[in-house]
Structure formats: structure tokens, C-alpha cells
Amino acid sequence: MPIHWLGSAQGARMLTFYLLDLRKVNVTTTRFWERAPAVRREAGAAERVVVGERPTHAERAVQAGPHSERLLAIENVSLEYRSRERIVRATQDVSFDVYGADRFVLLGPSGCGKSTLLKAIAGFIEPVSGSISLAGEPVRGPGADRVVVFQEFDQLPPWKTVAENVAFPLRAARKLSRAEARERALHYLDKVGLTAFADAYPHTLSGGMKQRVAIARALAMQPRVLLMDEPFAALDALTRRKMQEELLRLWDDARFTLLFVTHSIEEALVVGNRILLLSPHPGRVRAEVNSHAYSHASMGGVDFRESVARIHRLLFDTDTEANHEAGKEASR
Ligand code: ADP
Ligand code: MG
Fold first, then answer.
1. Where is the ABC transporter domain positioned along the sequence (predicted)?
2. Which residues contact 79 (CB under 8 A, 6 or more apart)?
3. Which residues line ligand 1 (CB under 6 A)?
4. What are the backbone angles phi and psi of residue 44, rounded to the nearest 5°?
5. Over the stretch 120-163, which tens digit does the pLDDT of each residue have?
6. Looking at domain 3-145+223-331, does it have CATH number 3.40.50.300?
7. CA of 221 to the centre of ligand 1 (A)
8. Quick one: which of 257, 265, 258 has its CA closest to 286?
9. Is the separation of the CB atoms in 280 and 261 below 8 Å?
10. Measured between alpha carbons, how far is 282 from 113 in angstroms, rounded to an integer?
11. Ligand 2 center to residue 83 CA distance, Å?
């Protein structure tokens, strides 16, 4: 979905907003599946398969450090786009939990509803059924505790310098003073290696550098959950790998909670510690995979390649029996 810039001049200053294009989204509270329980059972027949050893809560606490309580709870979430002509069901009965310091990946083919799920968690779309809660509180709209980094390179207002871009939401949402906001902006720009470009304008940066600015801006907000929607998909392969490594280094440093969307199986295995596999349109949960054992170093190895093949089967094999077998095989 495109991001639209809405700009308006007010006095000498420009007030800027950028919003998701929600004009086509007609949120509804009709609980379609409640009226058709038989269809629900049939349509939701895909079994949930947990592949790989699932860390116990205690193990997760050791891996993640002291902040590993359940942060996000997504329960039976169905999402739809409604227009006068038709209804598009984007996801159906999707459930998962994200714990503190997880690097949780939503993986599935294009059109399976990953972005829609992320938008719902960000609070831009309301589920037609099911619930989303953050730290025990229902999500009722957008908030500074959830920040999204998108794929597009045009997330940065072009009339602001790099540092101003990072500082702006800190001033607006976190209510920091100009000096405090700049200080924090420079701190996070340093983390992504862009100190030298603090006073540059976005059009002078490469795509990868613009994404670094977007990541610095998001981290500077210190959200409870960082939401990333295919943030590296438009980058060349080498830059993409570098950005993945950098993101993992940043995570090592700050142990933030990440919800990362991708359609690349390899990227999911490298970036995530847990992966939720979603079926093609409309997205339903196919399986959950534990992937904390993988890193860039494991890419190309036999084990890694086998995991890619298994995940591919789990994603695209529509026969649930075969899927179940694939799940059992993968967990050996
Ligand atoms: P993904 O991010 O996994 O590629 P999306 O969440 O973007 O998938 O889309 C899920 C489904 O919802 C797709 O079938 C897509 O065509 C549809 N969709 C996405 N945005 C809109 C919209 N604004 N209006 C109507 N349908 C939409
Ligand atoms: Mg998408």
C-alpha cells in the first residue's frame, strides 16, 4: 500500500504528516465467521505445526535476558478490506505471541496479509474478529509504543535533514526539547553509522542509507515493539545482507522486540529467532518455526538449505496431511 504525503503550509512553517492510505479501508465490525461457524471450521482446517524445539519460557528468558514477558498477543485475528463492490479477506484466524526481545518474523508469499497484519498491530486497521493486545492492553489505535519501518525509501520528509528527520517524531510524540531530541537523534545516527550525514538531506543518500535513517528514527523512539515491513526488500543483495547484519548487531546491543515481515525464507531464517509461516491469500497460520540456531554463517550449509526446502514445503503444500508430515520431519 502506498504511503501518501500530505503537506500543508501554515505560516512560514510546514506542518507535515505522513499517513498510511486508509481511504480504501472501510473498517467493519461485522463478525462474519460468527454467523458461519461451519465454514470457519472447514476454512481454518490448516493445522498449526510447531517445527523445531520450542524454547520453554525459562529458556527464552535466558536467551533474551530479563525482558522476556509476553508483549504482543494476537488471537484469532481476521482482517478485511471492504469497499462497496467487494470484501477482500486478508488474514483469517491468525494467532501468535511475541515475547520481549523476540525477533519474530511473519513469513509468507506476497498477498498473504503480512502488511495488513502489521498495520493492524500498529493500530491502523481494526480486526473484523479476534483481538490484539500489547502488554495486556488491547490495541485501540496507533501509538508511539509501536513504530513501523517500511520498505519504501521515501519515508523521510525530503525537506528535513537526516538529524531533523530522526528528531522530529521525538519532539512531536516524546515531547523532548529541541536539544534533547537532537542529542538522541545523533546517538542513534551514530549507531547506524551515519554521524557524518546528520546534516545531509535525504535525496543525497543511497537507498540503504535512507533505510538506516528510518531505522535510527524508529529506534530513537524506543518503542516497545519495532515493526518492520520488508525493510530491505528493495535493496541490492550485498546491501541487503549488510543491513541484516547491522540490524542483528543493533539487536545484540539493545535487545529490542522486533516484528519483522519478509517473503524471503533465507532472510526469515537469518533475521528471526521465531518464524510464523502464513499460507497464501488469505493468510492463515501454517506453522511456527524456531530459527534461533541460524545466522549468516549457516547460509549455504546443508542444514540451512534443508530448512529452506522444508519451509518452502510448509508454505506451499496445500495438503494439510502432507504439511503435518513435513512438520514432523522437520522437527526431527
Ligand atoms: P502482503 O503484505 O503479505 O503482500 P497485504 O497485507 O499487502 O499482503 O495484502 C493482503 C491482501 O489484501 C491482498 O490480497 C491484497 O490485494 C489485499 N489488499 C491490500 N491492501 C488493500 C486495500 N487497500 N484494499 C483492498 N485490498 C487490499
Ligand atoms: Mg506487504
1. 72-305
2. 89, 90, 91, 113, 116, 117, 120, 125, 127, 128
3. 1, 24-25, 81, 88, 90, 108, 110-116, 281
4. -90, 20
5. 999 999 999 999 999 999 999 999 999 999 999 899 999 999 99
6. yes
7. 28
8. 265
9. no
10. 7
11. 20
